[in-house]
Amino acid sequence: MPMRMEGQKLHTESREAFLRDVFPALSPEAVHALSGIALEVHYDADELIAQEGSYASGVYIVRTGLVSIGKYASKGWEKRCLRFLAVGEMFGLEAVFLGREPVNVQFAKAVVESSLVFFERSNILAFSKDHPQLFVDLCRWLSREVIMLEFKLTREAVESMDRNLALILIALTENYGEEDHGTLALCLPISRQTMAEMLGVSVETLMRGLKRFRELGLLTADYGKICVKDMPSLKERARVNDFYLSIMRETL
Question: What is the CATH class of 5-154?
Answer without folding.
Answer: mainly beta
